[in-house]
Amino acid sequence: RMIPFLEKSVAANKPFLAVLWFHTPHLPVLAAPEQRAKFARYTEKQQHYWGALTALDEQMGRLRRELRRLDVHRNTMLWYASDNGPEGDAEGPDWPGTAGPWRGRKRSLFEGGVRVPGILEWPGRVTPGQVTGMACSTQDYYPTVLDVLGFHMDKQPEPIDGLSLVPLLESKLKERPHPIAFETMGNTRGSPALTLIENRYKLLSSLNGKDDLLFDLRDDPGETRNLAGSMPDRVRAMTETLRTWRTSCSDSNQGKDYRD
């Protein structure tokens, strides 16, 4: 469905926006026999897992080839990101996904639950091989696209959580001027339910004044040393920012930000 849509848009000389949600590797994880066969030496669950990822990789390659065949790849932003860390409580035959060196997994707000690879391919504007250590988010896509199209965020009436990444792509930005916040529900696999990532420092909190966690992601990326007790001023400031963000989300959910 994606490829005919691209063909039709290009034939009509119309700009296009397409969002492609792959199911892989969300449960249930299933792979076709030809993909599973490449991993025959592993358990059945591992065969399905790695086979499904292989199929996803093949289809991303198919999409990239199509953009090149239509000769629109240079002026097309192609973004890729996973939505969260791997399922399961620990890596193993039943849960093959890995969070690498990061603590936590899916549903957790430790880095293993929220830090995922993010890739942008845009040959006309971005030199291949660039890497940034600045945390970015899918919430940055919207303001980035608006910026590229010439719309400036200071003219937008609604609150915007994300920021334009154009300065980052132009090597003019090394740290976020605004933090990234998350809230989760249900089983958090041991983390508090809210977090605020403010470049070097990360606060995890339930906003109840108890069990706050503060980590220095630069010196302690594995989140092993809680600095909350030794940096109370930073905890208070980040807690206030997190409260403000949460109130803003509640206002948005209730329609209080709406402008006719």
Question: TL;DR?
Answer:
The chain has 260 residues and is of the alpha+beta class. It contains 7 helices and 6 strands, in the order H-H-H-E-H-E-H-H-E-E-E-E-H.
Structure write-up:
Helices cover 30% and strands 10% of the residues. The protein is globular. The strands form 2 sheets. It has a 4-stranded antiparallel beta sheet with strand order 3-4-5-6, covered by helices on one side. It has a two-stranded antiparallel sheet with strand order 1-2. 21% of the residues are buried. It starts with a helix and ends in a 7-residue tail after the last helix. It has helices at 2-11, 33-36, 44-69, 111-114, 141-148, 166-169, 232-253, and strands spanning 78-81, 118-121, 180-183, 194-198, 201-205, 213-216. The protein has 260 residues and is of the alpha+beta class. Strand 4 (194-198) and strand 5 form a beta hairpin. The mean pLDDT is 93.
